[in-house]
Write a structure and sequence with these properties.
The complex is a heterotetramer, with two copies of chain A (266 residues) and two copies of chain B (318 residues).
Chain A lengths: L2 H4 L2 E3 L4 E3 H10 L7 E4 L3 H11 L6 E4 L3 E2 L23 E2 L2 H10 L4 E5 L2 E3 L4 E2 L2 E2 L7 E2 L6 H7 L1 E5 L7 E2 L16 H4 L6 E6 L3 E5 L6 E6 L5 H6 L6 E2 L11 H10 L8
Parallel strand pairs in A: 3-4, 3-7, 7-12, 8-13, 12-14, 16-17
Antiparallel strand pairs in A: 1-2, 4-5, 5-6, 8-9, 10-11, 14-15, 15-16
Helix pairs in contact in A: 2-3, 3-8
Chain B lengths: L5 H10 L11 H6 L6 E4 L9 H9 L5 E4 L5 H8 L3 E6 L12 H8 L4 E4 L2 H13 L3 E4 L6 H4 L5 E4 L6 E6 L5 E10 L4 E2 L7 H7 L3 E9 L1 H6 L4 E3 L6 E4 L17 H13 L1 H14 L4 H8 L1 H12 L5
Parallel strand pairs in B: 1-2, 1-8, 2-3, 3-4, 8-10, 10-12
Antiparallel strand pairs in B: 5-7, 6-7, 8-9, 9-11
Helix pairs in contact in B: 6-8, 10-11
Classes of the chains: A alpha/beta (266), B alpha/beta (318).
Chain lengths: 266, 318, 318, 266
């Protein structure tokens, strides 16, 4: 039984929310005022915009389509990060190559993406399910994912399901810590790395030395066992695992104002 | 699509007529410039400034074996595969768009080995066009290393930097034989102004060996010369200019019209049940059926064109 | 000014406050940010959009040993040498301008080994800034080979291209500690619009570790956000914003004023007889003497400022 | 006795002209309609503009400051190729790096520069007179000269004086054919090369195999001996050496209309 399905609607004392809404609110909480965040489409775009409207008005949002300092309008979410809706009231637009180069130059604090499949070292796969030579499923591919993950501190927001949290991804589209330890740095990726994975069950990080995934916090009503059951490899568990604060009414109202048609939070 | 030897690149460019001359022609005449098997760089990205009218004309002309390169590939890529116009798409991401899920057509063609989806990182695609634009055989970059994306690409090299000793990936120049680019306005010589997101189009225009511009409208060279700092693509790279209103529809053209979302939803729905039959019927109705681009637009429907225009122009409202 | 190790480049950039915040300050406060010995990239080229007010402020502040890099160096370079602010200029061409002949000051200082004129080709200077902007340690290029320009530069490498076997020169990234750039307008955060020729300023802004913008006027962030495709330098690269009308005078600022030719002729004449005495007197009168930038402008004279403005604005006349 | 000084004012049947005017008119005549020419400041800028107003209305003029398709106005010559006067009524401006990259990409037919010192293989020196380590004179340097000469077919317009036409330049700022034969190509410069040197005495080219400078034509009233006397190395002489047509009144009038203050043609 998949936790995500089970928890499709959750309640706080006064309100209910979907797993996607939980993801959006929880990952928004990781973004700090004054940071520069490079956000992918979907939950990341929505969560970054939410953070900007709540606790981080000075958050600088970049999109790979070429937007710097975005200010996405409520109810006008773009279908990707490449349409004009990304740019309205933005500070600048530039070529997609040049906005990606800002990652390489080091101007970006946080990369923020969704994920289809992740492994114990935070490697992401959005290219092939099964053998890449004869895949059972061809996925849409890297987009800017590989560049973002190669060059920044990463936050990933994704559903916590056993089939998505695997010991080894079928294909490393976007590098996490590769084979752990120093292997990322040895491969030439001397900057950045996985920082947090936010799921509908909890918050995860990575052990500083081994680079294995570690449970850092649980969302209200979730147990560490439940998280482990929904993970396809053995998780490290932090010495203290606090419980996150549930989304507030204010946060959910702001979120729903941004995405009234539930384009990203269905 | 490998790096050309410099002599060959120079020879091809040297042979082009780069003079200030009128290049206005019909969609059909422009399509006739592109032979079967050509490598084609496609401007815009995802649903933005897609040169849809030119792709429509190429598909109608029965073009085959085009090798297509684009930053991010959306429904135009599905139509290129399903029509038989292409069996090789070089891109960083391929699906209609996240809100419509994973492309069933892309899956069918790639999983069944009927087409190749050659995946590079988004920045790598951009740097390949940029190397092509700069006239160098490669550019160095710092992503892709350690990933399986680079592992499955034979056309990269890894080096130790001769200055710093650091590991770097070199990506080869991409100089497509043709670039198809849609712009808001240009003159008859091909001096183009682009509003909003430029994507990789400036590099693509410089990189390609021939550039076919479609444009929402043709303006005078005088108008261009009044603001030379607004010209984004210089005439000397351009070989054909075609005026096509709503030339990106059902995708968007910044400041003029947003995507025709209802049409795109209907398209996605039509492909959901049986992707192959669905897209064949779509191609028949919207690509092969109409006698002209205007008839195609008529099929899209005036109501949705007006709605998309209202949304598109609102970008400039306070 | 050698290529930084990537870790060090990232560390320096990571430490910067890149947030959306107001950065408006006085010329004097901005000058105080630049320590003796800093490497400084100078925007504009020759007589265009020279950040003259900032150079004026640095010279008045008694700055020493600045290592200055600019595409093409004109009278501001002579003043930097003669004031003692710099003894090392990296550039492709150094003289006031062809119409005034070879710089006597440049000759005196370089022939007498009192200063270094480090000569790179114009494109090489540009590609060094571009490599710095891209966060790569080098870029490849195809000029300079076989010439004595490259032969006397220790900081280049020649390679055989791993794709084509062709010979290429690699030029190292240039990430100056400071960029000084003058623009027509920007907001208090540093989002800058530049009209006309951009020269290397976009790359320079991205490459430098800190950017000091001088601007003819400060506009609202709202005004910038109405046309994000007109922003040329993003706020997140900028550390200081100083409003300085006529901030390039006696050089030009596109669309606003042309060079003050009479002043530049008089300057050249003053240096002709005895260059060292002439430029010392000029520095005394125009750089050290005035109490403020406005007093400096007053010395240039309202009549010539008005004439230069009339000529500058005429670029937009039909 | 230097020919250039001697010929400071020359006459056709009805009019007189300066050596600079002769240079401008003669080199303008080498530019063809429809070509793309990358012109340096001074005589090249003036001559390209003159060609555009006379026989080559479709000549595309590029300046290293960043101008594409310039249309310089009479009486408003720029002090360098970097001022706004270069851009008025131009087709495009772009960054100086990018306009120089057009040379490398191969979009330019002809590079067109002035010269301070040239040698028998067409190498140009604008950096040092004397030993570069202890120069008797430091010159302004390469500017775009090295890039232009490395990457295009070159026309050079310069005064014909013995001290300027030397066997071997003190410093190769802008490469011609280096040491002759295939040495240019062997050095990695596989495209371009010297095409013509236009002087106030005649027209010169380069032998196809040895790459040595060759006298191709004489201006009216000049002898081959005179040219050799004003050249610091042995010139090849073409099998036929025709005499050029002198500047016409129409050409001189157009030229003087462009440069009424004799900024470039003093």
């Amino acid at each position: 039984m998949r936790a995500a399905a089970e928890r499709a609607f959750m309640t706080t004392s006064t309100t209910t929310y979907t797993a996607s809404e939980l993801l959006a609110v929880m990952s928004a909480g990781l973004l700090c005022d004054g940071q520069v965040v490079f956000a992918g489409v979907g939950i990341p775009l929505l969560a970054a915009t939410l953070a900007q409207r709540l606790h981080a008005p000075g958050l600088t949002i970049l999109f790979e389509g070429g937007t710097i300092g975005a200010f996405v309008e409520p109810g006008k979410l773009p279908p990707s990060t490449n349409e004009q809706r990304c740019t309205r009231r933005a500070n600048m637009v530039l070529s997609s190559t040049d906005v990606l180069l800002l990652l390489q130059r080091g101007y970006v604090d946080i990369g923020f993406m969704g994920g289809a499949q992740i492994d114990q070292y935070g490697n992401l796969n959005s290219s092939f399910i099964g053998d890449p030579q004869h895949p059972t499923s061809r996925l849409p591919g890297s987009g800017g994912g590989n560049d973002i993950a190669s060059l920044t501190q990463m936050i990933v927001a994704m559903r916590h399901e056993k089939r998505r949290f695997v010991k080894k991804v079928d294909f490393v589209t976007s590098p996490g810590f590769l084979a752990g330890d120093n292997s990322r740095c040895d491969a030439g990726l001397v900057a950045g790395g996985m920082y947090r994975v936010v799921t509908d069950l909890g918050m995860l990080g990575f052990d500083e030395r081994s680079k294995r995934m570690e449970l850092l916090a649980l969302h209200p009503g979730v147990t560490a066992d439940q998280v482990q059951q929904n993970t396809g490899f053995e998780l490290l568990i932090a010495s203290e695992v606090p419980v996150t604060n549930p989304p507030t009414e204010n946060e959910l109202a702001a979120l729903r104002h941004l995405d009234p048609d539930r384009i990203y939070t269905a | 699509m490998l790096t050309l030897a410099y002599n060959e690149l120079r020879r091809r460019t040297g042979e082009r007529d780069r003079s200030l001359r009128e290049k206005v022609m019909s969609l059909e005449a422009a399509a006739a410039l592109v032979p079967d098997g050509a490598s084609v760089g496609i401007g815009g990205s995802t649903l933005s400034r897609t040169p849809m009218a030119m792709i429509w004309a190429l598909i109608r002309a029965g073009r085959k074996e085009l090798v297509c390169a684009r930053s991010i590939t959306s429904s135009e890529g599905e139509l290129l595969l399903a029509s038989g116009a292409s069996r090789h798409v070089l891109t960083s991401w391929f699906s209609q768009g996240i809100v419509w899920g994973v492309s069933r057509i892309m899956r069918l063609y790639t999983e069944g080995n009927r087409a190749r989806f050659e995946e590079w990182s988004h920045m790598a695609v951009g740097l390949r066009f940029r190397a092509g634009a700069m006239g160098v055989p490669f550019l160095p970059m710092r992503s892709m290393m350690g990933s399986d994306v680079v592992a499955q690409l034979p056309d990269t090299r890894q080096i130790d930097c001769p200055f710093t000793g650091e590991k770097l990936v070199l990506v080869p120049a991409l100089n497509p034989e043709f670039a198809l680019i849609h712009v808001q306005r240009c003159d008859a010589y091909g001096n183009a102004q682009i509003d909003g997101l430029p994507f990789m189009d400036l590099d693509l225009a410089m990189a390609a060996n021939r550039v076919i511009l479609t444009t929402e409208r043709i303006v005078s060279n005088d108008q261009i010369r009044r603001a030379p700092d607004q010209t984004k693509i210089p005439f000397l790279t351009v070989d054909a200019v075609v005026e096509v209103p709503f030339g990106s529809a059902p995708h968007e053209c910044y400041g003029l019209y947003e995507p025709l979302f209802k049409h795109l939803d209907a398209y996605a729905a039509q492909l959901r049940q049986n992707p192959e039959e669905g897209i064949a019927a779509y191609l028949e109705r919207f690509f092969y059926g109409p006698k002209s681009w205007t008839e195609y637009l008529d099929l899209l429907g005036l109501e949705e064109l007006l709605d998309a225009s209202r949304r598109g122009k609102s970008i400039y409202d306070d």
